[in-house]
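#onboarding

Welcome to the new folks! Below is a worked example of what a typical request in this channel looks like: someone posts a single protein sequence, and someone else replies with the predicted structure as tokens. Don't worry about understanding the tokens yet, we'll cover that in week two.

Example request:
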Amino acid sequence: MRHLALVAAGILLMLNISPLRAEDRSAEDRSSPNILLIVADDLGYGNLGCYGQRHIRTPVLDQMAKEGLRFTHFYAGASLCLPSRCTLMTGLHTGHSRCRVNGGGGKHPPIHEEDTTLATVLKAAGYRTGMVGKWALGDHFRGCVVEHQNTDGPGALYKHGWDYYFGEPNQTYNHRYYPPQLYRYDPHGWIATATEGRRLDVVPLKNEKNGRSGDQYSHDLLVENALAFIKASRDDPFFLYVPFTIPHADFVVPEPEPYVQDQSWPKQAKVFASMISRMDRDVGRILKLLDTLGIEKNTLVIFTSDNGGLSAHDGTFHNNGPLDGYKGSLTEGGLRVPCIAHWPGRIRPGRESEEKLAFWDFMPTFSELAGIEPPTPIDGISFVPTLLESGEQMHHRYLFFGTGKGKRFYVVRGQDENRSDEEISAEANTEVIVPTYRPES
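Example response:
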């Protein structure tokens, strides 16, 4: 631990990051908690029982909400995958961030090497940083089996603060649940044999070429590696980001859940429900492991989704509940997502919050919990006061969602914001902002 502290101090000096002064943090807050962020893919506001779902069974997440804090006005970063994840990683909304669209034809805009990510900041604070699942912010990386993508791209995940990775970085290929291969990055050898340098190792899988059948379901492999990372990191503060692909199409699952068998739903609706229930059960496995290891009271777990729910199967499940619109639309249904925070002994059980928050708030929130200042300028605000019911919660004047300068946008107003949408858009849409670390005080 002393060695980790010295390493962290060296990184802070190199990056010019200021740790919060000890007198600014209560004694209870001085031990940096583990942070575990689970992000589903295309899970709608109404797909969980605790948000009104009547058909799909999600007992673990419903219990998480009972034992923790359920947000009712929490927004993803965008209505589509890639820009949403960019806001999460950088603390910038889509009027300021690098990636404002998904791209097409496999041409996904990457983040740049100079873009500071959540992983970079938490690693500087002494955290082990792990990601298991869908990166999406850099398709070109050394070790890729696709020849023209086997290059050292600016968004390669090994350039952005990660100590460990398992999954498929390219969002296009994530949507086959029986892929021919996945990738791993483990230069420290924490989980298995150490990988070599700044590149990803290929993990061949026993699956059919069509990507829809085989012996190794990608989601199950992600869960096993998430559990392995937690076990390997139990004695050090860790940040684990688990961007699952479920329930994004393809709609494929190894076996349907028993409760869907007698339902009159269409076949693919049964698969969709089974995918969500399978993920729910796997969240339970993660929570159980934290409890078994005795670290549940020092681990903040947040569960959310990368954008609003799908139109597929909506007639059966009402994926976004009462909200209008779907994934891909700049509407409440395309942007507002479920969000549950769970931290035994720290978050008072059974609470709900109407605070208007978004993906870009994770950067300052996790930075505060880690005892480090976030980069500046960013668009996020810390919601630690809401989590812990201590201190004064800052409020957003507005939340802005756009697709590029002069193009479509959507505004969620705070209580004191009276300007027109056009005035807000003129202020919020700028050239790309690249935050820097705050100088030492």
